[in-house]
Amino acid sequence: MTTYYTKSHEWIRVDGEQATVGITAHASEELGELVFVEAKDEGTDVAAGDAAAVVESVKAASDIYAPVAGTLAGFNEALSDDPTLVGRDAEGEGWIFRMTVSNPDDLKGLLTAEQYKSL
Amino acid sequence: MFPAAFCVEPGASASSRLEIEWTGLFRMSDSLQRTPLYDLNLELGAKMVPFAGFEMPIQFPAGLMAEHLHTREKVGLFDVSHMGQIRIAAKSGDVKEAAAALETLVPADYVGLAAGRQRYGLLTNEEGGILDDLMVANMGHDLLVVVNAGCKVQDADRIEKALSDRCVVTRQFDRGLMALQGPAAEAALAPLCPAVKDMRFMDVIETELATATGPVKVTVSRSGYTGEDGFEIGCAGADSEKVARAILAQPDVLPIGLGARDSLRLEAGLCLYGNDIDVTTTPVEASLGWAIQKARREGGAREGGYPGAEVVLKQTCDGVSRKRVGLLVEGRAPVRAGAKLFADAEGQKEIGMVTSGAFGPSVKAPVAMGYVASEYTALDTPVFAELRGKYVPLHVRAMPFVAPGFKR
């Protein structure tokens, strides 16, 4: 499994064509405690950069973009009951949605952990 | 007091990129002004954002949610020095004359305002639109007016132009102003400033506050803009940091940013100028008719006599086509400013717009306010907000959303 990052502060962890997406610990810290998280329906086709989910703090709503093209394959239902899970473990239990990646080659255009950190 | 919250952009809604505009990724421009508490805010770990031409603390290390809840449970200190303080003194020396002069611009009863008391008001334009909301205190010898940061120059110009034949208008924009808000506010302030124990809601005094280097002169009102008991403390710019440090040294006092100020005032049902009220809304539409006292209404001792009076008097009698209401959202998804409101769950009949919306940390649910067509203003009326292509149910609810903590 490999994890890639985006400039818009998403991470995507890939195992073959199956991937899990969330927001980075840095983004989570910047946003503060979340009060609501929602993803588009399972089965929705998304292009890279399409809004696939939204995270909301008290004050602001922020779109979460699909890092690459694919099909949404499920939402982290634990976040419906407890959106603060993202704040506690943004890059683990606080994952937001799963997706099937259309073209694994697209991942090459994303950032590595080192590249993301150096932003 | 009122204003301060910060708005990303009035009317801006929807989601933003994760490059969260207010959380510090913002590039500060050199042209932004700083309050006398700027250095202290940085020392306290504030995230600063541009607001109304100032670099202001949006939140401190505790974070918006914790700051909001702390203010409702204990007490928080807010830097609101960006707001404008203006003194109005009649050339005759008679404060009633200054009050009568100000009444030509504001539809409130200031002639009837006793010394040592303050009262909310609205600056109106010729169409009855709201140019700003403000707080006016009768200081005995003159009036102390506090206006919103973004409007202060324009307000002072307007007041000076209209009143300069009878009054001396002094801008005190270099003064400090802080709000100490929450149920423990009196306990925090009284050791430094014992006179505050005898104050009730909307009283104003001039007194001294004890700091590490001795007493300094302050104006204190028992008021605020959070729905909690509390005080607003004005002082010379040079004394501001000393005053803030003395207050922060008291038990239970935390610094609070503009982010929490916005969610606190929204839960309290209070308007943010530029979002909930502006020149396109009248006092009647904004459900602020209570800010026009009997003396200024039809049949009152000093009926009308302010810009837009005909419009406002007519609307008071005949009613208006839309009004500001409180809205409680079903479910957990916040409905934000700019969301369109509909009468039906299919989005067929548009009836208004949300002007402020956030998750209410104390209400533990999303809360909003906005304008709806008059036939939808009755309490518990169901309405629907457009949110990411869906229609979310809301109900018209009484404001405030939280019980006020004022000491009457």
If you had to describe this structure to a student in words, what would you say it looks like?
The complex is a heterodimer of chains A (119) and B (408). By secondary structure, chain A is an alpha+beta fold. Chain A has one domain (2-117): OB fold (Dihydrolipoamide Acetyltransferase, E2P) (Beta Barrel). Helices cover 17% and strands 39% of the residues of chain A. Chain A has helices at residues 25-31, 78-81, 85-88, 113-117, and strands at residues 2-5, 10-15, 18-23, 34-39, 45-46, 51-57, 61-65, 70-75, 97-101. Chain A has a six-stranded antiparallel β-sheet with strand order 1-2-3-9-8-5. The longest helix of chain A has 7 residues, at 25-31. Chain B has 408 residues and is α+β, with helices and mostly antiparallel strands. Chain B has three domains: 38-78 and 175-267, Gyrase A, domain 2, CATH 3.30.1360; 82-169 and 282-318, Aminomethyltransferase beta-barrel domains (Alpha-Beta Plaits), CATH 3.30.70; 321-408, Elongation Factor Tu (Ef-tu), domain 3 (Beta Barrel), CATH 2.40.30.110. Helices cover 17% and strands 31% of the residues of chain B. Chain B is built from eight helices and 19 strands. Chain B has helices at 38-43, 64-73, 95-102, 152-163, 185-189, 240-248, 258-267, 309-318, and strands spanning 47-51, 54-59, 75-79, 84-90, 118-124, 130-138, 143-147, 167-171, 176-181, 204-211, 214-221, 230-235, 253-256, 322-329, 340-342, 350-360, 365-373, 382-387, 390-397. Chain B has a six-stranded mixed β-sheet, with helices on both faces. Chain B has a six-stranded antiparallel beta barrel with strand order 14-17-16-15-18-19. Chain B is globular and about 65 Å long. The chains are: A alpha+beta (119), B alpha+beta (408). The interface between A and B is medium-sized, with 26 and 31 residues.
